[in-house]
Amino acid sequence: MKLSSVGCVYVRVKCNDDDTIGDLKKLVAAQTGTRADKIRIQKWYTIYKDHITLKDYEIHDGMGLELYYN
């Protein structure tokens, strides 16, 4: 999965369909050195909630998401 942040920094992480958005944030935090609780992941105007799985949001491999720092 590829995530882009404001400022066009791209991050690729390996995750499963049953991982939650919170798990995804932890993977991104490990790569970027940012605390997971300061990361916001969204697509357009939809902010993804930590307890929902990637499968429930229909997020799949190759999909680009937006990464913001709070």
What features would you describe in this structure?
Residues 13-68 form the Ubiquitin-like domain. Keywords: Ubl conjugation pathway. InterPro entries: Hub1/Ubl5 (IPR039732), Ubiquitin-like_dom (IPR000626), Ubiquitin-like_domsf (IPR029071). The protein has 70 residues and is an alpha+beta fold. Helix content is 17%, strand content 29%. It contains one helix and five strands, in the order E-E-H-E-E-E. It has one helix spanning 21-32, and strands at residues 2-5, 10-12, 39-43, 46-47, 64-69. It has a five-stranded mixed β-sheet with strand order 2-1-5-3-4, covered by helices on one side. The two termini are 21 Å apart. The relative contact order is 0.32. The mean pLDDT is 85.
Quick description:
By secondary structure, the chain is of the alpha+beta class.
The strand line-up of the biggest sheet is 2-1-5-3-4
Structural class: alpha+beta
- CA-based shape: globular
Percent strand equals 25-35%
Overall pLDDT: 85
Order of helices and strands: EEHEEE
Helices, strands, pairings?
Layout: E1 2-5, E2 10-12, H1 21-32, E3 39-43, E4 46-47, E5 64-69
Parallel strand pairs: 1-5
Antiparallel strand pairs: 1-2, 3-4, 3-5
State the main characteristics:
single chain; 70 residues; alpha+beta; 5-stranded mixed beta sheet; 1 helix; 29% strand; globular; Hub1/Ubl5; Ubiquitin-like domain-containing protein; Ubiquitin-like_dom
